[in-house]
Each structure stands twice: as structure tokens, then as C-alpha cells.
Amino acid sequence: MTGRYVGRRLLQVLPTVAGIVLVGFLLIHLAPGGPIIALAGDSGDEEYYAFMTAKFGLDRPLPEQLATYAGNVLRGDLGVSYIQGRPAIDVIAERLPATLLLAGTALVGSSVAGVALGAWAAARAHSIRDLAVTSAALVLYAAPVFWLGQLALLTLALRTGLFPVQGMTTAGGPETGLAWALDVARHLALPALVLASQEVAAVARLTRAGVLEELAADHVRTALAKGLSDRRVLVRHALRRALLPVVTVIGSRPGHLLAGTIVVEVVFGWPGLSRLLLTSVQTRDTPILLGIFLLVAATVVLANLVTDLVYGWLDPRIRYR
Amino acid sequence: MTDRGGGSAPAGQPVLRIRDLVVEFDTPDGVVRAVDGVSYDVAAGETLGVVGESGCGKTVTVLAVLGLLPRRSARVVRGEALLGGMDLLRLPPRRLRAVRGKRVAMVFQNPMTSLHPALTVRHQIAEALRAHDRGLPRHAARRRAVELLDAVGVADAARRARGYPHQWSGGMRQRAMIAMAIANEPDLLIADEPTTALDVTIQAQVLDLLREVRGRTGAATILITHDLGVIAEMADRVVVVYAGRVVETGDVHTIFHAPRHPYTLGLLAALPRLDTDRQSLAAIPGQPPDLVRRPSGCAFHPRCGLHRGRNRCVAQSPDLATVGPGHRAACHYADELAAETARAAGMSAAEPGDGPGAPA
Amino acid sequence: MAGSTPASAIADATDVAPVGRVGALGRAPRRRLLRRILQTPAGAAGVSLTLLVIVVGLLADLLAPTDPLVPAGPPLAPPSPAHLMGTDALGRDLLSGVVYGARTSLVVVFATGALVLLIGVTVGTVSGYRGGRVDDALMRVTEFFQVLPRFFLAIMAIALFGPGLDLLVLVLGLTSWATLARVVRAEVLSLSQREFVEAARASGASDTRIVVLEILPNALPAAVVYLGLLLAQVLLLEASLGFLGLGDPNLVSWGYLAGQAQRFLRVAWWLSFFPGVAIAFAVLGLNLLGDALTDVLGGRR
Hints:
The structure holds three protein chains of three kinds.
Chain A: H1 3-30, H2 34-40, H3 46-55, H4 62-74, H5 88-123, H6 128-142, H7 145-159, H8 177-215, H9 218-225, H10 230-252, H11 254-268, H12 273-283, H13 286-314, H14 316-319
Chain B: E1 14-27, E2 30-43, E3 47-51, H1 58-65, E4 74-83, E5 86-87, H2 93-99, E6 104-107, H3 121-132, H4 138-151, H5 157-160, H6 170-182, E7 188-192, H7 200-217, E8 220-225, H8 228-234, E9 237-242, E10 245-251, H9 252-257, H10 262-269, H11 311-315, E11 321-324, E12 327-329, H12 334-345
Parallel strand pairs in B: 3-8, 3-9, 6-7, 7-8
Antiparallel strand pairs in B: 1-2, 1-4, 4-5, 9-10, 10-12, 11-12
Chain C: H1 6-11, H2 33-39, H3 41-58, H4 60-63, H5 94-130, H6 132-147, H7 150-161, H8 165-175, H9 178-191, H10 195-202, H11 207-243, H12 254-261, H13 269-296
Helix pairs in contact in C: 2-3, 3-5, 3-13, 5-6, 5-8, 5-9, 5-11, 5-13, 6-9, 7-8, 9-11, 10-11, 11-12, 11-13, 12-13
């Protein structure tokens, strides 16, 4: 991978980051009651208002306010949660690992399973198994994730007792070591599966379409004419090219995935960001909400960047342009 | 494993014998018989030119032989394709795969799309080697790939081989395709329109290379083309295909100087000639036949100047009949052409080439 | 399938027509469009499901047995002839809720769709037709809107401005047009180089005239096809927000119903099941319709 390619991609990220910060700034200023209420709550605490006014330069002209605000945000200073009285970033950081564990498991699992299923279906296009995969993907892609979660709870957890119903750990269970990890894994399985299902559907559909298109390509005929095995042609030749759009889609879905994570967390009582997010909506705890929004946006931007780099690795024509 | 089913056939012995091959396609408009009883042989050291308009079934024939037809829409109805005693059409997949790229190799029409864009050229050639020699170490395969590229005239092969196809020109890519095809020293090399997608100047170089390769390896070659000019330069014998059938076959000299099928005559008349400008090219009137609604009798009759309303052409499909030594044509009135070709011979400026394999 | 080789299974995808002229199916006249969609099972299912939601939403007052917000029977009654989908914790008829939920979805989808179409087509057309710097700038903005996390932005907006249908539509519409704009731009780009446009330009027609009369009518089908798939996602997003209790508090929505069901999952499966089925059907309908339109209009998936 050439350094110039990486550098160019990094440069392109900057305006996006600036835009996202600007959106947060705009929302705060458009909010009823103005920026001070949005940033410091409606407690009426004049001393705190004065402190926040100074901190964010709210008595200065708008461009200067924007600069101050952007500086604070980029340094990770999102203000103080006025419900908890602690820096917003600390409050968010506490809940983040659980959410990332759930989302990360689903992302990795769905990418692998989706690509495998899609390629498997495409290898026998229009067969029974292809029909089964395509229809399942169509239904899963349409089903709302909370509903899938509720159905999974009803059938797999409540009826059979195979899986725990709520939470991330068993109350009074092991708190360290392998036993703890296994306990978490057992709690993780069902929510991760539900969260992954829609992503699996999306990835499988796209992989299948891509592989089918590639299998019709001249270079695949060349590979077959060389005497390569079907499996090798499918995996090394067709799938490699078909992965290009798949990578794009996987890379463009973290926003979607994190939204799904919030919803699944509610269904399974998973102790991630969801509860914090919902209480913050009730209490209008803007620093927290803004923090989560910026965090998710940053994740999406980062994912796009990684996608582009992977893309360049998969397609030399882009790398050397 | 070096079982080559008897090794390279001695010159003159058929390497591949295709007999009465029938291939049908399902299309939205109905069943199409794309290949309708094609038979031909190709011998070691020989170049067989297969010529016809696009869609006449000349490519489908060889794809069927290699088992590369789309499974869902195409099927081989009957026929044989004998490669040293074994019928490729009835070979189990695994054994057919051992033939592909090893004993029979193919060069495709469009070098711009026939190579994988995201794999290095070296890798793609090494892959062909390793597909048939599991024991060959990766580095040895790579080294051999570079040697092969060197042998087909790629300058600075060691460095270039590490590049990707998009960094190569069309002519270079076709050289790479040829290197890939001869990697395992096949008994039969099939080249499907190998120069059609290339610039005129590059075309000559690639044809030279193919001729040189044949001289070096002694492999049988099937050269599929719509271009009689290429045939004249390269082929020893010619098979003319129309609407899925062989309409004429003979050695290249006979075909060019004494064609006995009106379609062949039409193709010859359409050849660009040095002494006329392009506008005056005599094209065969009418369109290539719609195979869903194949014309009755002789499929060529709607476009044929010899038909002259005679009922036999409409009612009866002509068989391939011997009209001279090693020369066969499928026309009810082949005799009538003899007189005409005597006159036409004087007009035909295209001469069979003087390549090493051309008949004296 | 003993006779077929695995290799040809791979080559299967080629489906090459042996004769160039055989596969030449021209673009069908618009009149026959609906018939061709209905001819495929997926297309027929898509049209039926979409129509079903539209009809139920429009005729909600006639179809719903009771007022969805007023108790109409015993609490948490399972599905029975009296209450086909059962009742909730307050004894409200779930069928009525689902029927009125269709209306809410309809309003959200149509209003958001209109907004998305307006912004997306405008940006896409200007970008594709003007080209140059305008195009560069607009595409930068479009890319930005593509990475903006809609769900979290919507939540923040709801927290700051209070929940409501108008705000929801505004946020969803303002953040969902980006991909549509790209589709339209690509279409306009290729159209503006076509002969009939060149001809109009040569005859001295103004840009506005060319865009409105020549380009837009031809670019819109692509936009509409894509809109179906896009609105399916909007519907899911709206349902998720409803599920979290962030929808319009004065309206019954499918997501809201499913959210209310969460607490009663152990005792009343129907409260979760039926609203979920409704959402899945509606989304499936839009997806199938979008796929069928894409196939019929000869576009890529």
C-alpha cells in the first residue's frame, strides 16, 4: 500500500470531522432555550451558567464560539453531565465497553457468516440451498431487530431456558477469570446473534450478487480453463473481486449497527450505552447525548477510512491511481 | 502424476476428434441449437482454422469440449470429443479438470478482461503451473512463470511479472495469456479470436508468437476467428462453420482458391484487399440466421446467391460431401461453384501465408 | 445432478446467450411495466404487501374495530374472536393499534419520501448537470450526509426539541437523501451526454427547459426505484425510535406497540408478535417492490 494513498485518504477525513462538529454546534444553538440551557441544563444555577458561558465563550461572537466549542470537543472535553455531575466523556466511557463488545461480536460474526453464506449460495445459483439462503436473507433484512430479539427471547430463552434472559452476567456469579468470561459469553450469544442477523442478511445478499456477477466474468473462465478447482476459483478469484462492494457495505454500516445495538440492548437488558442514552433523553442531558453522537460519528468516519484502505488492498487499480 | 494418456501424438495423428457434437441452449425465446452436429479433427503440429460469423457456434463447440458451458442454460445433447481415447464430454469433473490447462489450454479473445485484475501476472501464471503439479513449490512456480513470460517476449519479465494486469498493455497481456496457456506444454492449444481485441500492429506480433510457439512445442492448434486474413496467415486446414454446422472443410489452399460453398465464397469476397478501398467491400447480404427460427433446408439459403429459388435448398438440408481430396462441402449445388470459383480465383488477392506450417 | 460438472456450475452464472440476437430484449414500454412486475412472484408479493399497508392505513377508521387508545376488553387477553390480536395491559384492542399503526407508518414514509425525493433529485440533478466545482462541492456535502449517523442524530434532536411526527419526518428526510442524490446524479450525468439532450441543446433550449423536459423524466424512474429500498430503511428506523418510546406520543405506531410489549413478553407474546409482523411485511413489501422495479427497468441491484 502506497503511503500517498493513505495520506490522501486521511486528508479527506478532515472536512467530514469538521462537519460533524458543526452539526453538534448547530443543534445546540437551535435548541429551545439556546445553547446555555442545552449545555448546562435548566437548573437555574446562575454560577454554573456563568462558568459554562465562560468555558464555551457563549458571550463571544458565533465564529469564536464555534472555535472554542470545536477545540473543547477535539480535546475530548464534552462538558459535564448535569445529572451525574461528572465529565460526560467519563460517564460514556464506563458504558462503552459493553456496547463495543456486543457490536464488535456482531460485526465480526456477521461479516464472516454473511460472506460465507453469500458465496455458498452463489456457487449453486438457483438451487434449493440458494433459494433458502436468499429467502432467509430477504426476511431477516426486513424484520425489525427488536422484534427478532423479542422472538428469540420468547422461543430460545424463555421457553427452552437455553440462554439467559437478561443482562451481561449472572447475579452472584463468578466475577473474574475464565468462569466469568464464559458467563459473559453465554449472555452475549443471543443478543449478538440477533444483532448480527440483519447484517448477515445484508452482507449475504450483496456477496451473492457480487459473486454471481464475478463468476460470469472472463477472468473466471480463464481460471477454470487453467484447471483450477471450483473452490479455488470461487474463493481466490470470484470472491476476492466480489468482496469490494461487500467491504464498502460492511464499512458503511457501523452507524446502522450501533443503532441496532442500542435497540438490542434494551430488549436483552444489556448494560451498554442504551440506558444512559435513554435516561439522557428524558433528562435532556445534552453533553452525554452530544458525546454519544460525536462518538458514533467518529466511529463511522474511522470505519469508512479503514474501508478505503482495505479497498485499496483488494483492488490494486485504486492503490496505484 | 505425468499420465498424459499416451503422450504427445506424433505429427499427423489426430489429437482431438470432435464427432457429431450437438449443443442446445435454453433462451427466453426457446431452445436454440447452437451447435448442430459439428465434427472435426486436429492433428499434432497442425493449425486448424475455424472460421465463421459471431454466434455461429465456433466458440461454443470448444467450450463444450472443455466443459466450460453455463450449466443451467446449456447442454450437450450428443456427440464425442476424443482426446487420445477418452471422451471429454463424458469425463467426470475431476478428471476433466486435470485435462484443462494441462493437455488442452485455451487463449481467450479479450486479454483486457481475461486476467484477474487484483492478482499479479506472475501469480496467475504460477497458479496454472501449480494447479497441475501440487508438488511444485511456490517460488519455483514463480521463477518458471517469469521464464515463460521471457519466452513469449515480455521484456524485463522478472520485474513486470510482479505487476498487475492493469499496468500491462493489451498486447502484453495477450502474451501473458499465451505464456499461461503453454505453461504445462499442452497437446492442444485453442486460441479463440486471440487478436480481435488488439491493435493491428500488435495483432501481427501475437500471431507471430503463436506460430513460433507451435513450432517450438509441436502442439496442435485450433485457431478460432471470424477473420479470413488471420486464417490465411496461420492455418493449415480450415473448417467453415455456419449456423452451428460445418459447411466446408479442406486445406487452406483449396479453401481460398477453390471454395465449394457459397458462404465461404461470400466470406472471401468480403476480405479487404490492398487494391480497393474499404467502401467497396462485398458483404454477404442479409443477417446471420436467427437460430430460434432456423431457416428450413439449408440454413444459408435466404442469403445465398446460388439458391435462385430452387426448392431443394428450402426443403432439404445438405450433407457434408466430399468434393475433392480432403475437401468437403455441404451444398446441393457445390458443382456449380466450381466454374464460378475459377473466375473468382483471379480476383482473390488474399493468399495463404507462407508460414512454416503452410502447405507447399 | 450427476451429469453436471461443478465447474460448469461456476460457469453457470455466465448464462451467455449463444447467439447475439437471441437475448436482445428491448426496454418494455411503460404501460406494461406493472404487468411485468406482477409476473414475477417476488414482484407480485411486493406490490400486494405495499398495497395492503396503503389500503389499511387509508381506511384505518373503517377497519379498526375500536379506538386504539381506549380500553375495549379485559387486559392482556390472548387473541380470540373478540380481539383477533388480543389486548394490551390496559385492555386496548391490539388489532386496532396495528391498523392505526399502518396509518402512522404511511404518513412517515410518504412525508419522508417526498422530502427525500425533493432534496435528492435537486442535489443530484444540479450536481450531475452542472458538473465541475458545483458537482465537487455538492458531492462532498452528500458524502458527509452519508456518514452522518441518522439514528443518533434523531435521538439528539428529539431530546432537544421534544418528540413529534413533524420533527421525526424532518430529521429523517434531511438525513436520508444522500444515496438518492448519488443515484440521480449518475443518471443525469449519463443522460446529459445522450443525443436527444445534445439535440435540444443545439436547438437553443435553455438549461431549465432541457432539465425539466428532457432529463428529469428519464432520470426519475431510477430515483423512484431506489426510493422504495430507501423508504424500507426509513420505516425500520422509525420503528426503532418508536420502540424506544421516542415516537410521537399522540400517535399509535408499530414500533411503539412493540416497545410496550417488552415488559409483558413473558405473559403476552401477541403484543410483540403482531406489530413485528406488520413492520416486517411492510418493509419486505417495499424491498421486494424495489428489487422487482430494478429488475424490470434493467438496472443493477
